[in-house]
Write a structure and sequence with these properties.
binds adenosine monophosphate; six-stranded mixed β-sheet; Molybdopterin biosynthesis moeA protein, domain 3; alpha/beta; 7 helices; binds magnesium ion
């Protein structure tokens, strides 16, 4: 039996092929409370200005600026306090010459007033105060509409709902939000050597760690995950399970069986369900055999069984696809530049991806591998918040080189506060 020849494509081309597929995104309504992490399905237009009225940014006194002209240390100008309002209250009084209204932060500027004097800028007595400087028209006033005007688009379709989006939606009274439905994901680990997590170890066997890892990665999107039983390397049974998974979910992730070994059945499985293979070889290490297919508008991700390769495949290929299925406009990972803190002397024709720790130091962003980093490694994934991307070529890399780094997690491993 001859080994199938596969032609590697670049990581970028692989991502492009995935993102080029047409997928259908359906919209649903969710409660504001449950909207975090969803993607907005419509533009949100401001129905009123923010701020909605001229208001005071300080605790102090609302005055007419014209009355303050000529004030100085030698010529303090006195104001009579005619009312007192807190946030949420509106004064019914109108300020006249040399009058003032005591006003708290957030309260609406009373009519007649066009400036606010902070308490710190006054000398107070019982019902009056004096100031020693003049105020300009609109000084210390938060103006109506200075942040957003009625009719402006404040939030865009395709935006991910974060806490700030929730604050804006709450401001405009949205108790329900129109969002894209989140896809559901099937996870199937394949390999005759695999035991379930709860199983006792046996000679030659290992526990399935990829399944729970992928479930956890998918959960970061808040999406539903269907965990299927570990599949031994049995072609007929595996075809059946993949078919079932495809009928029950929007996206199917398998791990293992993607190489050209005697029991690597994934290519056969994809063939039997007539999936269109987008690629089956990428110029990357680890995970060069990562295979992605498309069938009936659904993605099938054949990730390598090697844990580091499996993780890398999820970060590079599954994440953008999930973002696309969720209706997101921004689908790609955050990539930063960082200073490499160790040598990688061996040249590699393929792009090298290394589980790593990215840390901001006084000298800038630095990155170092997070441990033993062969494709079968699992522990280094636990200690990583980033992935170094070394381009393929004829030379190695040295400490001090500036390299591209994918941020996979936003947390730092640094115990010190770096500010
Ligand atoms: P494969 O991709 O099936 O050739 O597997 C490559 C390597 O990954 C082998 O050493 C497997 O034992 C290991 N492996 C496969 N599946 C898993 C899994 N679900 N969890 C942990 N290791 C795995
Ligand atoms: Mg296998």
């Amino acid at each position: 039996m001859s080994v199938e020849k596969r032609t590697p494509i670049s990581v970028k081309e692989a991502i492009k092929r995935i993102m080029k597929q047409h997928v259908e995104v359906k919209n649903i309504n969710v409660n504001l409370d449950e909207s975090l992490g969803h993607i907005l399905a419509e533009d949100i237009v401001a129905t009123y200005d923010i701020p909605r009225f001229n208001k005071s940014p300080y605790d102090g006194f609302a005055i007419r600026s014209e009355d303050s002209q000529g004030a100085s240390g030698e010529n303090r100008i006195e104001f009579e306090v005619i009312d007192h309002i807190g946030a949420g209250s509106v004064s019914e009084k109108t300020i006249d010459k040399n009058q003032a209204i005591r006003i708290m932060t957030g309260a609406q500027i009373p009519s007649g007033a066009d400036a606010v004097v902070m308490f710190e800028q006054t000398i107070e007595s019982e019902t009056t105060f004096t100031i020693r400087k003049s105020f300009k028209h609109l000084e210390n006033i938060s103006l109506q509409g200075e942040e957003i005007k009625a009719g402006d688009i404040v939030l865009h379709k395709g935006m991910r709902i974060n806490s700030g989006v929730i604050a804006v939606l709450a401001t405009y009274g949205y108790t329900k939000v129109r969002v894209a439905r989140k896809p559901t994901v099937a996870v199937i680990a394949t390999g005759s050597e695999l035991l379930e997590v709860e199983d006792e170890l046996e000679p030659g066997k290992i526990r399935n760690s990829n399944g729970p890892m992928i479930k956890a990665l998918a959960k970061q999107f808040g999406i539903q995950v269907g965990m299927y039983k570990v599949q031994h390397d049995n072609l007929e049974k595996s075809i059946e399970v993949v078919k079932k998974a495809l009928s029950e979910h929007d996206l199917v992730i398998t791990t293992g069986g993607v190489s050209v070994g005697d029991f690597d059945y994934l290519p056969e499985i994809y063939k039997s369900i007539q999936a269109q293979i987008l690629f089956n070889k990428v110029a990357q290490r680890p995970g060069s055999v990562t295979t992605v297919a498309f069938a009936d508008g659904k993605y099938l991700f054949g990730l390598s069984g090697n844990p580091s390769a499996c993780y890398t495949g999820f970060e590079l290929y599954v994440k953008p696809a999930v973002n696309k299925l969720m209706g997101a406009k921004a689908c790609y990972p955050q990539i930063i530049k960082a200073t490499l803190m160790e040598d990688f002397n061996k040249a590699n024709p393929f792009t090298r991806l290394i589980r790593a720790k990215a840390t901001l130091t006084k000298a800038g962003m630095t990155v170092i591998s997070s441990g033993f980093n062969k494709s079968g490694a699992v522990v280094a994934i636990a200690h990583a918040n980033a992935m170094i991307m070394l381009p393929g070529g004829t030379r190695g890399f040295k400490a001090g080189n500036i390299v591209d780094v994918i941020l996979t997690e936003s947390n730092s491993f640094e115990e010190e506060l770096i500010l």
